[in-house]
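User: Hey, my collaborator sent me this sequence without any context and asked if I could get a structure. I don't really work with proteins. Can you help?
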Amino acid sequence: MELTPNEPNKAGSKPGNRVPPPQERFLRGRQKRTRPKRRIGKLLLKGLTLLLGLVSLAAALAWMVTAFGHAPELTVDRVLVEGNVRLSDGEILELLEFSERANILMLDLEEVKARLLLSAWVSAVEVERVLPSTLKLEIRERQPVAIAVLDELYLLASDGTMLDQLSPRYDIEKLVLARGLRDGEGLAPERTALAGRLAAALNRDERLMTLVSEIDVSEGNDSVSLHLRAPALTVLVHGDTMIERLIEVVPLLDGIEKDYAELEVVDLRFKGRAYLRLRDQLNTPASSNRSGGATTFAQAALATGGAPF
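Assistant: No problem. I've predicted the 3D structure and written it out in structure-token form, which is a compact way to encode the shape of the chain:
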């Protein structure tokens, strides 16, 4: 049915209003809206601007690095060294191997540290830049605690590091000799470490340091031989209880030697007990009695506080 302006429609619409066909009303919601191309262009322009900014920043940084790398004001002209006693400043500079125009900003501090640690004397080092042109080194050196007896004599540190060949410039008056450092394959790291640890423990006690002249670690930690200066005896100890047992027995040594004139070895490896071995002065058969000078073992209990043998 056709509607005319002068005739009302069946739905009660006002005159002059056109009701769209049903199909047109439903299709309006399905029509796609396209974004303006102008918005995409703006996004591309922003991305290009950001990219150009990053490239410019990288170029500026590269220029600054190059400029600072060649700046004469930043050339290392002073090395401040602290903590070195055994190593001279000249020896340290040789280890660093600086070029004449080394730039302080371009230095690899970890590489500097690694070069210094190549020296056996250096156990640790801290490296710091002090602008504009100073490099500060704080060095911690190993200390000799014993003299390693090999084909030659060497200074031995507490961690078993061989520091240097012994020379007259070193004061070795109170250092013990360390023997038994080789096994069938050569120098044994576990033996050098054991000798260094035991020597360092002795050095912490002034009385024991002057009493012991030699350490022999050829039998390992379970049976360490100590040679005393006075009285001239050999003492067998376990590495883990060495200091404890020596402190117990040292006050009794003079009395023991007086009672046993033929005393040669004191065995302190077993807790709470001491075993004495006497010299065979007359070289007689083992079946002879003690008065004849045969080798004899005397056993005695060592109570807390030091009981007589």
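In plain terms: The longest strand covers residues 122-130. You can pass these tokens on to your collaborator as they are.
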